[in-house]
Amino acid sequence: MGRKNINVKVSPKGYRKKRRRSLSIASAIIVLLLIIFIILPEFISPYSYCLRYGETEYRFAPRYSPPMIGRLHFWGETGFTLRPFVCAIGEDGEEDCSRQYPIYFFIHGDRYRLWGIFETNLHLFGTGEPSDSPGQIFLLGTDEGGEDLLTKILLGGRTTLSISFIVVFINFLLGIILGSLSGYYGRWIDDIIQRVTEIFMSIPRLALLISLTFIANFYFKGTTINYWIIVGVLSFVNWAPLAREIRGQVLAVREEEYVMAAKALGATAGHIIINHILRNISGFLIVSATLSIPNIIILESVLSFIGWGIQEPLMSWGSLLQAANRPVVITNYPWLLIPAFPLFFTIFAFNFLGDALRDALEVRG
Amino acid sequence: MVGYILRRIFYMILMLLLISFIAFAIIQAMPGSILDYIHIYSEEDVKTYGLNQPFLVQYGKWLSRLLHLDFGIAGNGMPVSAVLFTEGAKWFYSLIIICATMLFAWPLGIAIGICSALWQNSLWDRIALFISVFGIALPNFLLALFLSWILYRGLGIPPVGNKFQLEFLWLYILVIGSASIISIMRHMRSNLIDVLTTDYIRTARAKGLREHVILKHGVRNAINPLISMLGFYIPTLFEGMIVAAAIFNIPIIERAYLEAFKNQDPYVIATGLLFFGIILLAGNLLADLLLLMNDPRIRYEG
Fold first, then answer.
1. What is the pLDDT of residues B171-182, one digit of tens each?
2. How far is CA A227 from the centre of its chain?
3. In Å, how far are B117, B128, B194, B251 from B124, measured between CA atoms?
4. Beta strand pairing status for A104-114 and A95-102?
5. Average pLDDT for residues B100-124, to the nearest whole number?
6. Does residue A292 sit in helix, strand or coil?
7. Is A28 within a domain?
8. Structure confidence at residue A9 (pLDDT)
9. CA B155 to CA B149: how far, in whole Å?
10. Which residue of A35, A132, A284, B127 is surrounded by the most CB atoms within 10 Å?
11. d(Cα A344, Cα A62) in Å, to the nearest integer?
């Protein structure tokens, strides 16, 4: 029974390898797109959220307007047109096709500050109508407050992804320093660092995360602080397993002949760690950095979802999904679940990219 | 062996002391004193818990009360043990859910893993791998959201409500256990594939042993790394239970713990953190002992 199955057929394997390769390329493209999205969210979305938040300017924005992605019309009175238009939104949210608004690329709309520096009002697409006109384009619908969901998803993606990148960076910095100290020097340094990691690993992560955010919220209040609290708390809680893994890798490399040779030539410990040991485990570091990004994304989303993460007016995918936490609401307005899709595909892409890198760099374990 | 266990337990108690200190430090880090958050304490309570005394005295009093299984008094005047565990049989529901999840996730994950490894690259294996690739990218709260949406659309019954619903136990299990099932299945598959290509399995085949005997040897060896990961799965289960409690509103310990933060209830927060730490450490100890039983090659010094 099992005997036949040990033999691996050759031809499908090559096919699978090729398909795997194309999937890896696809996931790399998704990651690149995500990076573009997090650099330019205000430009890509037709509206700017931060400008409107707390402003008194009247906007025509019905609550829970359904997604208009299926309401882009390519057939006008004159037949097929390459410039799609949207119909006006009536007060009840239904479309009213007596008034049609064509969609333009690179249109001027809401003002925003790109990266907090350049003040501009250029958007990738939009109807170019003033904000009190019913000719608005809500591609993914609006939420409870009449906010454009696409804008929120793009801005939420920026929060989620930038948090996970920063946290992974800090974790690796800490993990590399502590892990290589602990692995290279051994003895009492190793003992102390290992005991500390053990303490960190025997407190449930999520409970510690919630407690630390809870405490931090007493002392620091404000939008940007909220962001850095989450970054700090997530980095504080997650470095321990990583430091331990890096220690294991350093231990495995420490006894290699080239390290001995460097030692015999009188190289300093710092030189050996940076130029010999870390360079030799760089493949492992790259792969585990890529694979730990989705973990941080999930943790951040869960934290924001249960209400102890990113708070208004900042948003992340997890906090957007909080609005969909009531079955009655999702049943009536299922588009509130849309933030789940970018979340899913992001995690998927990073996981897949990590696996592909592992294969490409031939990292063991 | 006995020495090893005793040493582990001693070590565990040290760890718990540290965790209890961290837990107490967290509630003391709240601005002001505990008395600022809870106003219902009587003179006697203030004296018992040393609420008007310095940090270390309070911590000592709390620890000594812990030994009497008195975890403090919650904001609503009830003892913490009632708020966190006994009121509305929370401990019982938590226990049911966690046992059901373990009993479901482990056999299922191991069975799928074994089948996938035996019929490697078959249609079955492909389907299992496909589902696992997607399942890993699906955090449990998304799964819970989608399932409750589908249920509400299909049946018209929301799986939420301030009660434990036995007919939705499968839902809780799926949400809490999905991550574990997938991870167990993948590990089991890759371990068994590795083991089945080793020399002793080839020798067993050459001797003409029947396949199920070979499987027994293979599975016993492939399962060891999984057992040592048992301790690792407990935080995953715990995270799943917090998410399930938040979404389905089940009255379990985890929900009481979440509510404690909302109500700013110091003693419940500290006790909860300590309790989850105990579960985690006990799970790790249990995993090591199970590994010792399953793999006689392992000898712990001591």
1. 888 889 888 899
2. 14
3. 10, 6, 19, 38
4. unpaired
5. 88
6. helix
7. no
8. 45
9. 10
10. A284
11. 28
Q: Which long-range contacts link B27-30 to residues 24+ away (Cβ below 8 Å)? A: B27/B266, B27/B267, B27/B269, B27/B270, B28/B55, B28/B58, B28/B59, B29/A215, B29/A218, B30/A215, B30/A218, B30/B264, B30/B266
How far does A184 lie from chain B, in Å, by closest CA? 25
Map B55-118 to HEC letters.
HHHHHHHHHHHHHCCCCCECCCCCEHHHHHHHHHHHHHHHHHHHHHHHHHHHHHHHHHHHHHHH
Q: Is the Cβ pair A348, B258 closer than 8 Å?
A: no
**What's the structural domain count of chain A?**
2
Structure pTM? 0.86
Q: For chain B, say whether A365 makes contact (Cβ under 8 Å).
A: no
Distance from CA of A9 to the nearest CA of B (A): 9
Say which CATH architecture domain B88-261 belongs to. Answer: Orthogonal Bundle (1.10)
Query: A204 and B152: CB-CB below 8 Å?
Result: no
Of the candidates B141, B179, B144, B258, the one whose C-alpha atom is nearest the C-alpha of residue A301 is B141
Q: Sign of torsion, CA A40 A41 A42 A45? A: positive
The answer to whether position A267 is within a domain reads yes
Chain A contact set for B158 (CB, 8 A): 327-328
Q: Kindly state whether residues A173 and A267 are assigned to the same domain.
A: yes
Point out the domain boundary residue: A119, A145, A171: A145
pLDDT band, very low/low/confident/very high, at A5 (cuts 50, 70, 90)? very low
Residue A248: which of A190, A179, A175, A178 has the closest Cα? A179
- Residues of chain A with C-beta less than 8 angstroms from the C-beta of B134: 348
Average pLDDT of chain A?
80
CATH label of the domain that carries residue A310: 1.10.3720.10
Which of B133, B145, B262 is most worth mutating to test chain A (most A CB atoms within 10 A of its CB)? B145
Give contacts of A 189-248 with B, CB under 8 A: 198-199, 202-208, 210-212, 214-215, 218-219
Residue with tokens 């485990």: A281
A192: its two tokens: 């102390």
- Min Cα distance B142 → chain A (Å) is 7
Cβ pair B273:A203 closer than 8 A: yes
In the structure, what pLDDT confidence band is assigned to residue B302 with cuts at 50, 70 and 90? Answer: very low
Contacting residues of A for B139, CB less than 8 Å apart: 298, 301-302, 343, 347
How many other CB atoms are found less than 10 A from the CB of residue B54? 8
Statement to judge: residues A255 and A297 lie in one domain:
yes
Structure confidence at residue A17 (pLDDT): 64
The domain ranges of chain B are 88-261
Counting residues of chain B whose pLDDT is more than 90, the rounded percentage is 2
**Residue B77 C-alpha, separation from nearest chain A C-alpha, in angstroms:** 22
Is residue A12 in a domain?
no
Are A354 and A269 contained in the same domain? yes
Q: Is residue A13 part of a domain?
A: no
Q: Are residues A234 and A336 in the same domain?
A: yes
User: Could you tell me which of A103, A104, A86, A141 has the C-alpha nearest to residue A329?
Assistant: A141
